[in-house]
C-alpha cells in the first residue's frame, strides 16, 4: 500500500474489520502504486494486501467512479460549496486523480477484476464477496 493522504494504516483497517466493516479499495493510480499510471494488476495487488490483512469477508470495491466527470467537474458541482470543499479538505493534493488506470478506465473494467481474481485462484464465493457481496452483507446488517 502507498503512503499518501488517502491511505489508511493497517491498524485502522483492522479496527474496521474487527467491528464488522468493509474496506473498499480505491482505484486511483496514485493511491494504488504512487504513480500517475497503474494497471488492473496493481489494483488486484491492493485487494490481496487487504485480504491478507483482514480477510476476504471485509474487502470490497471502492472505485470512486463518477463516470464522465473529471475531478474539476466534481469539485465544481453545484452540491460542493467552497466552504464545504475547505471543510472536508477536498483538493487535488488530497485526492490525486489520474486517467491512467489501464484496465479499469471506467465501469467497463469490472470484468477485468473478476478475471484477475479467477487467475489468482480465488473461489467463486470469495469473488462474489469482493465484487459486492460484502457490501450487501453490511447493508443488510446495518439498515436491513
Account of the 3D structure:
By secondary structure, the protein is mainly alpha-helical. It is built from 7 helices and 4 strands. The chain has a two-stranded parallel ribbon with strand order 1-3. The longest helix has 20 residues, at 124-143. The model is unreliable at 89-97 (pLDDT under 50).
Furnish the topology, listing elements before pairings:
Layout (H helix, E strand, L loop, with lengths): L9 H9 L4 E3 L3 H5 L4 E2 H15 L4 E3 L9 H5 L6 H7 L12 E2 L7 H10 L4 H20 L1
Parallel strand pairs: 1-3, 2-4
Helix pairs in contact: 3-6
Question: Main attributes?
Answer:
mainly alpha; about 140 residues; two-stranded parallel sheet; two-stranded parallel ribbon; globular
**What is the approximate shape?**
globular
Order of helices and strands: HEHEHEHHEHH
> What radius of gyration results from the CA coordinates?
16 Å
**Total domain count:** 1
H/I helix tally: 7
**What's the N-to-C terminus distance?**
33 Å
> By helix and strand content, what is the structural category?
mainly alpha
Amino acid at each position: 500500500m502507498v503512503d499518501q493522504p488517502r491511505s489508511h494504516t493497517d491498524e485502522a483497517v483492522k479496527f474496521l474489520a474487527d467491528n464488522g466493516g468493509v474496506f473498499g479499495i480505491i482505484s486511483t493510480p496514485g493511491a494504488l502504486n504512487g504513480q500517475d499510471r497503474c494497471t488492473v494488476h496493481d489494483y488486484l495487488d491492493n485487494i490481496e494486501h487487504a485480504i491478507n490483512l483482514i480477510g476476504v469477508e471485509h474487502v470490497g470495491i471502492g472505485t470512486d467512479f463518477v463516470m464522465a466527470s473529471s475531478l474539476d467537474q466534481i469539485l465544481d458541482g453545484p452540491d460542493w460549496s467552497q466552504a464545504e470543499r475547505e471543510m472536508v479538505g477536498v483538493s487535488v493534493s488530497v485526492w490525486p486523480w489520474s486517467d491512467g488506470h489501464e484496465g479499469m478506465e471506467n465501469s467497463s473494467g469490472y470484468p477485468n477484476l473478476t478475471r484477475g481474481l479467477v487467475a489468482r485462484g480465488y473461489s467463486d464465493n470469495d469473488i462474489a464477496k469482493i465484487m459486492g457481496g460484502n457490501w450487501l452483507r453490511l447493508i443488510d446488517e446495518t439498515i436491513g
